[in-house]
């Protein structure tokens, strides 16, 4: 049956080699009761463990049924332990939280028998050892003698060929010892029983053969086997713990340690609750924002401005004198303006707002918008006085004239969108403001046209500009008629007279403004901006002026005498009504419309503001505006600004910020959960060392052990997830109450049911991940070390 050929086994402890077995050669019959005697440390247990496949020898071979085990894999050894060997230990090694029946069934649980067969076999074994009546009890209610009977039943249940018993009566009184020995003799009568004992009387009474060990060697064998062993097939059925078994073991462990498991679940669920609350806030805020977009932002207008300023500055300049970005930042704190060449590093785009475009806007479906407003701008006749007192006509095309709206949505436009750097916001229709760029800079052309004296790149103090006056001259004074033509009398004497006349309107720079940093709705180009009121007053007067009336009735330019260009001739002159002033009308070919607008007869829309009815109409309007630009050359496109998108971008970036912070929190929570689960699973493993080792002795594979812990972790993960989600729903009530107090938004935190389900799955995954390494550690626990320490 069994043969040991020259078996050597040694251990290295503290640097020295300890020989446990020193060349053991023994043969065993298929059926005999062998007792192993020997002093402590003589190698008896090591010998038993090698036969039982719990330890491997260093040298030699264990032959089973004539077959060498040298090539056995771990899996072969597991099957061998489960099907061929039954173990009985001095301290019984029962699993305390399982019933007697379940303890016995554990050994058959790894076989491929049906549930009923396993049950029947276990009951039959318990019946044989006379303990069937207690099978529903756990081991804690049994006497030592009864516990050993259970252990015998467990060793018997698989009907193994070999029974290995390590001092089975070591913990029993003499009466119980005799009972147990009688029982063993009876139930194992046709098997090979190898029993280690310290008791020579028992050995003599029950054994058919006594082998005595000393210092790892056999010194006596009362009934050695001489003949050769016949070769037989060893049946090594594959062992595998069924899912139902690992589920049962896990459930038993959980229900047995209710309080511990409850705290375990509670701690893990706090992490899940944290993540659930974070998700609910992110999701809730996201929804609130999109509702806000639909409800509120829909009312934000689409703005088509003469100057499309998207605030992109290329600060890398080829000009050596140009300021670096850091220097530019310093400008902001100064009470001064910095002259610069805008062409070099500015990407302002000038929209060509033509009659055709205005008509296109007018043709838009009226149902899409609630209102369209046109901010007017007009070419004014303005005189300036240089520092040396010389009067001249101001080139309005160079100063970027624009008009600012009085009211804009829910407040004063300038106050809302511009910082006052110096002076005061306009209070009168004749007050004008100077708009600088975000670095306090102003284009040289504007400064030159305004008649400001400065040297090179030297800064200009604000007080030099604020208070500066200009004179607006109405058409009837500005143009003199001669026959069928009009001309500007630009003699020094006449300009002086006009400048000082009482009809001249004095306009003065009252303040210097800069776009608010966070506000992208500020659309005024840098330069001079005047009130809409002044603009309307001027247009009204111009329309009544003689030159305009004359021009309206003439087919030629009343100043130059030239014929007009057609609306769009071969040279591609566009009938653009903005951006043409009287000086350019004189110097180049213009259309009649352009001439009239340069005379101030028609207003030039410097800004068209469209207020969409709702969010969907806004998209339709945008589509309509985009359609105009389709197939147009780059410089002919009219660019618009969707202010709601600007605000939306702002809220999206705020949301992004909040999300990142919350995700960091969620990650920390996740990590803490993971570490907690790791620690708790590890603690559970330490606690369940006995169970793990017994399962291994009974033939469970390492994989089965991992699966056992994984099953338990899945159950805990699931319960933690459910509890975490439930607590999150509970916490959401006070949290929403608090958030409503702070933000005025009701029911911010919402957790959709599908997210809750995903969180439960995440919880299972967390516990699986957190418990994976401890489960692996558990599966690698050496049952031999445990048994040696326990016995
Ligand atoms: N895991 C181990 N590591 C180191 N040394 C070991 C280990 N297992 C056994 N030994 C040593 O090997 C020798 C044989 O030990 P073994 O337990 O087999 O003896 P034993 O006869 O069963 O003793 P006892 O009756 O006290 O259980 C002893 O000297 C022991 O210290």
UniProtKB/TrEMBL annotation:
Residues that span the membrane, as ranges: 261-282, 658-680, 713-735, 755-775
Recorded family membership: Belongs to the ABC transporter superfamily. Macrolide exporter (TC 3.A.1.122) family.
UniProt cross-references to SMART domains, sorted A to Z: AAA
Keyword NAD: no
Primary location: membrane
Keyword Transmembrane assigned: yes
Compartments, record wording: Cell inner membrane
PANTHER family: CELL DIVISION ATP-BINDING PROTEIN FTSE, LIPOPROTEIN-RELEASING SYSTEM ATP-BINDING PROTEIN LOLD
Organism from which the protein derives: Intestinibacter bartlettii
Protein name per UniProt: ABC transporter ATP-binding protein/permease
Residues of the ABC transporter domain: 2-240
Gene Ontology molecular functions: ATP binding
Keywords: ATP-binding, Cell membrane, Membrane, Nucleotide-binding, Transmembrane, Transmembrane helix, Transport
Topology in the lipid bilayer: Multi-pass membrane protein
InterPro entries reported in the protein's UniProt record: AAA+_ATPase (IPR003593), ABC3_permease_C (IPR003838), ABC_transporter-like_ATP-bd (IPR003439), MacB-like_ATP-bd (IPR017911)
Domain of life from the UniProt record: Bacteria
């Amino acid at each position: 049956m069994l043969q040991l050929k020259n078996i050597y086994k040694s251990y290295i402890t503290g640097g020295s080699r300890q020989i446990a077995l020193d060349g053991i050669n023994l043969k065993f019959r298929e059926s005999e009761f062998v007792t192993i005697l020997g002093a402590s440390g003589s190698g008896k247990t090591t010998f038993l463990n090698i036969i039982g496949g719990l330890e491997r020898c260093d040298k030699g071979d264990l032959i089973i049924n004539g077959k060498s085990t040298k090539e056995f894999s771990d899996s072969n050894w597991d099957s061998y332990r489960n099907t061929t060997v039954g173990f009985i230990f001095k301290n019984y090694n029962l699993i305390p939280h399982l019933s007697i029946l379940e303890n016995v069934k554990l050994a058959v649980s790894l076989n491929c028998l049906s549930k009923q067969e396993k049950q029947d076999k276990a009951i039959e074994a318990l019946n044989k050892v006379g303990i069937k009546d207690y099978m529903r009890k756990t081991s804690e209610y049994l006497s030592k003698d009864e516990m050993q009977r259970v252990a015998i039943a467990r060793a018997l249940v698989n009907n193994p060929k070999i029974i290995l018993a390590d001092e089975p009566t070591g913990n029993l009184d003499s009466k119980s010892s005799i009972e147990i020995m009688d029982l063993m003799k009876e139930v194992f009568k046709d098997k090979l029983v190898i029993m280690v004992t310290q008791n020579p009387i028992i050995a003599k009474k029950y054994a058919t053969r006594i082998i005595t060990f000393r210092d790892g060697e056999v010194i006596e064998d009362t009934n050695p086997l001489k003949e050769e062993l016949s070769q037989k097939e060893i049946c090594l059925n594959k062992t595998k713990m069924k899912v139902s078994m690992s589920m049962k073991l896990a459930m038993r462990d959980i229900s047995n340690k209710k309080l511990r498991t409850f705290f375990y679940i509670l701690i893990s669920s706090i992490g899940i609750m944290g993540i659930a609350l974070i998700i609910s806030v992110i999701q809730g805020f996201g929804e609130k924002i999109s509702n806000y977009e639909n409800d509120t932002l829909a009312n934000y207008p689409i703005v088509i401005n003469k100057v499309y300023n998207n605030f992109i500055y290329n600060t890398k300049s080829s000009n050596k004198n140009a300021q670096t970005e850091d220097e530019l930042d310093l400008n902001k704190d100064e009470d001064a303006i910095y002259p610069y060449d805008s062409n070099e590093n500015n990407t302002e785009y000038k929209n060509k707002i033509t009659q055709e475009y205005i008509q296109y806007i007018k043709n838009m479906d009226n149902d899409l918008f609630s209102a369209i407003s046109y901010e007017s701008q007009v070419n004014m006749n303005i005189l300036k006085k240089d520092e040396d007192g010389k009067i001249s006509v101001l080139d309005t095309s160079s100063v970027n004239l624009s008009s600012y709206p009085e009211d804009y949505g829910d407040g004063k436009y300038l106050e809302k969108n511009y910082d006052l750097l110096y002076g005061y916001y306009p209070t009168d229709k004749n007050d004008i403001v100077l708009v600088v760029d975000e670095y306090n800079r102003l284009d040289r052309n504007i400064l030159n046209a305004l008649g400001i004296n400065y040297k090179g790149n030297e800064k200009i103090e604000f007080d030099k500009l604020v208070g500066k006056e200009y004179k607006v001259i109405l058409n009837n004074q500005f143009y003199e008629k001669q026959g069928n033509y009009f001309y500007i009398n630009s003699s020094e004497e006449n300009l002086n007279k006009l400048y000082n006349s009482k009809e001249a309107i004095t306009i003065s720079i009252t303040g210097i403004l800069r776009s608010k940093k966070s506000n992208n709705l500020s659309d005024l180009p840098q330069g001079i901006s005047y009130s809409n009121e002044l603009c309307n007053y001027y247009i009204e007067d111009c329309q009544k002026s003689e030159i305009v009336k004359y021009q309206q009735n003439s087919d030629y330019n009343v100043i130059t005498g030239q014929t007009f260009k057609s609306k769009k001739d071969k040279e591609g002159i566009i009938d653009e009504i903005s951006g043409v002033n009287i000086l350019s009308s004189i110097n180049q070919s213009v259309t009649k419309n352009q001439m009239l607008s340069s005379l101030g007869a028609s207003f030039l829309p410097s800004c068209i503001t469209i207020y969409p009815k709702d969010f969907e109409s806004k998209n339709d309007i945008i589509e309509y505006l985009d359609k105009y630009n389709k197939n147009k050359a780059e410089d002919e496109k009219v660019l618009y600004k969707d202010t709601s998108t600007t605000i939306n971008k702002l809220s999206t970036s705020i949301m992004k910020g909040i999300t990142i912070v919350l995700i960091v929190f969620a990650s920390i929570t996740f990590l803490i959960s993971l570490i907690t689960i790791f620690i708790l699973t590890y603690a559970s493993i330490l606690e369940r060392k006995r169970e793990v080792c017994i399962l291994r002795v009974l033939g469970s594979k390492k994989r089965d052990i991992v699966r056992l812990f994984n099953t338990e972790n899945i159950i805990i993960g699931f319960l933690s997830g459910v509890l975490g989600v439930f607590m999150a729903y509970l916490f959401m009530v006070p949290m929403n109450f608090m958030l409503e107090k702070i933000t005025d938004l009701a029911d911010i935190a919402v957790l959709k049911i599908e997210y809750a389900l995903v969180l439960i799955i995440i919880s299972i995954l967390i516990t699986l991940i957190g418990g994976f390494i401890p489960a692996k550690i558990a599966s690698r626990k050496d049952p031999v070390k445990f048994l040696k320490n326990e016995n």
